[in-house]
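Dear all,

This email documents one entry for the complex benchmark we are building for the journal club exercise. For each entry we list the sequence lines for every component of the assembly. Then comes the predicted three-dimensional structure of the complex as a token string, followed by one or two observations. Please use this as the template for your own entries, and keep the labels exactly as they appear.
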Amino acid sequence: MTFTLILEQTFNGLQAGVTLFLVAAGLTLILGIMDFVFLAHGSQVMIGAYAAAAITQATGNFYLGVLLAIPVTFASGYLLEFLIIRHLYRRDHMEQVLATFGLILFFNEAIRVSFGPAALFSDLPPSLSGFVEILPATPYPAYRLGVIIVGLLCAVGIHLLVSRTRIGAMVRAGANNPEMTAALGINIKILFRFIFATGACLAGVAGMMLGPLTAVQPGMGEPLLILSLVVIIIGGIGSVRGAFVAAIIVGLVDTLGRVFLPAILRLFVEQATADGAGPALASMLVYILMAVVLIFRPTGLFPAKG
Amino acid sequence: MSGLSHFLILASDGMKTNRLFWLLIAGFALFPIFTHFADLPFWNDVAMRIMLLGMAAMGLNLVLGYGGMVSFGHAAFIGIGAYCVGIGDFYGLTNGWAHILLGIVVCGLMGLVIGYLALRTSGIYFIMITLAFAQMLFFLFVSLEQFGGDDGMSIDRAEFGFIDLYNPLRLYFLIWVALALVGLGLMFIVHSRFGVTLRAIKSNESRIEAMGLQPLQYKITGYVISAVICGLAGVLFANWQEYVSPDIMHWTRSGELMIIIILGGLGTLAGPLLGAIVFLLLEESLPIMLDTVAPAYAENWMILFGPLLIMVVMFGRGGLVGLLSAQRQSKNNLKRDNVGQ
Amino acid sequence: MNKVITIGAIVGLVAAGTALYLQSQKKSDNVKVGYMTTLSGGAGIIGKQMQNAVNLAMEHKGGKLGGMNAEIIFADDQRKPDVAKQLANRLMKSDKVDVVAGVIWSNLLMAIHKPVTRNGTLLISSNAGPSPIAGAQCNKNFVSMSWQNDQTPEGMGKHMQDAGIKSVYLMAPNYQAGKDMLAGFKRYYKGTIKGEVYTKLGQSDFQAELSALRAAGAEATMIFQPGGMGINFVKQWKQAGMDSVSKLYTVFSVDGVSLPALKDAAIGILGTQTWSPDLDNAINKKFVGDYKAKFGAYPSFYAAQAYDTILAIDHAIAKSGSKDTAKMRTVLAAGNIPTTRGNLKMNTNQFPIQNIYLREAVKDADGIVTTKVTSTVFTDHADSYASQCKF
């Protein structure tokens, strides 16, 4: 276990964290501002991935695929909010859970009917298939570097949008006190729709980035959904800054935990037990982290309200 | 008034207001007669599955429907109950009553520990922490190679002394009796002082605190009782399935329980059972219908199920019980609290 | 109004479904086969291929098995053990099938094994082969038309041992099948194991594991990552340029299900398997040729085994002259069953004794990526649990 390996794994953890942030950012705003439990956020990731993969296949150009898929995902989020979501704001959390669970089922099947149950073919664009030496003798896929850059740019962009613009001020006001914000005469309906569509778009971008790396198949968004729920809980609902910090933490803990936990355990217990317990513990690590955070800070690290 | 007459009045009152539930119970008792004459023995299996799912959902309903605590981890208690049978069987403990006792004790303790830790939070945080605990238990059982890991273990049905569980009707009525007892117990709990307080906590927690009571004690007690009920369902489920595996405690199963409760009617006695009936029957009938209408898409039946759930939420206030009963459920059950969120 | 519509929709669907189901019950003297597989949900693609293969087999047999008119009842287990158990009961008690066959997943097979065999119905597995059923918990009413889980990785272990590969890095998901695969591998491979990593089930990003792999510097890497996990892993392996670090070997990860998504990324990867589309016998040639023509892609081993299952039932009935369970299993236990793998021999625990081949992913004449046999690792390889099985 060398120092360079630890550095390389930290880099991997950062990339995982940044991707998580793209998904969590939208979700924390939706949950924080609209108080809406949107379980189908993972489906937005899937829609983005499919849109990009399909357009790339049709046009033969990856960048065109991503560029055109962005408005497609924005539109899908916009439409979804207009047709269904806005009727459910006043409902119990449990009913929102039920309805969005139904949406997950619907989207997964709809994708399966349109594209078939097999995974869609998607690959790296040739221009990004090379390597960059981030450390001596450590080639790192250029594409993943691109993902980190895109993720960080988005983070900066969201930060600027939320803290420097009027819309951002409305968003922050909405997160802090929705009733007062509405009372001030701001068109909450359009604001909500915009926030929802943007959140969907961000999740879609995460999906588009992941498409060439992973299998584009129905249900690909659900694991990311669970993890991003954990992220926004740790970070504090409604806080984009909290989502960023928590996403990086979760990405690092998950990555470093996976690779180093069995070795660390071996220092304390005999090898057979360490090898058996290690992977199990590693899968639980993120949940243990969340439980610990909640026990000491029941509303997360950077809660937006109060 | 003497204790016995108080009990009888409460019982007959309960029977009247919870008419639907007892009607369903009677229906389940008579169902095997129907299947016998219609020569459809397989449907007894469906009925048993429905009763078990309904039982677990009733347990969750105590905290979810009446108590307002959205626990995403209750499938874990079903799993623990089931594994009490499996692990007991593994070590040669085959007495069914011992399994039930073990299940109650272990689930009670786990419910106490998890409830105590989780109930320090509320709202969406509570949902997530219960989910976290459930996931941890799931991964724990997946990693236990000795007990089959995720391949699970085949088990023999337990010995209950005079009741031979391999006689299908005996198992059916054992489950039926358990379901009726759970229903009876819940009916008393809900209408007792404890139950009224629990429901009041759901409605306005700070008011209860102002009255000098400790909401946390009530919530934890409710949580433990619901865990025990789910555990009992798990013990019986393991006997029915003759097999245990971590699949029973996957978080999507908790989601299914929640769907069933909301579908049937939150905070009602008959709701969970009714929801279980409709849910499982839909699971059976939708694929067949799609197969007849559009065979090429037969396996995509969930594309109908999803929108159906959405429709129930959008248009069916109070679930099926609300739709069926003449009086509308009190709107208080459904209005979102802003307190404590 | 909305309330009425909703309740009407639900009641209507339930009633219609029940009515249609009841109507479809016909009693006849046909042979009935209940074929259970996963058709809906995430793994539906595998079930779909098996369903295609079964239908193709029935077409080839003219709708008859062993000379009797036959009916296949497909059942979708949704990958849930309790649904599988209920389906098994329905197939046996309601549809009164003569054979229950199929079953992709080991945990589902474990769930229905006892109920079906206890009922005296013949149970034939088209895929799952967990060790308890091959050993201590075996039952004479069960026949496997696929393999025992450990056989394929045992083949890989032997190949790498014989090829003199000095060090290996192992990786599999952290569940029972994953542990079985690596245990089977280690039974025959005696070189240095530089790492044995269990990844999370359903994991999609392996970059961290690949970094650790690179640091370990093993001569070869052996992985078991079925389904979507395999697609992810192989893609990322190539994207990280790992071919220059270590040679990749696989079991159950590069096959007819994952190749369409991997395409050229898979070329050159080696794996062991009990079957390959290019096996040179008449039955296999017809199967692969017709499957490609009808469904537009190469069949996977799941499909081949499903096809073999139908051939086995046909053989059993034809040779025994009846659809009685005891008679059918006696014929099958004797082996010599004509399948896509040649004439299949049977072990005492009614699991196949078969060849294990080394296969490489290559491009065929039409530019489609498929697998080709490069050598035979084991001839007539038996599973390691037969001695524990006493009927």
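Observations: Chain A has one domain: 3-296. The mean pLDDT of chain A is 87.
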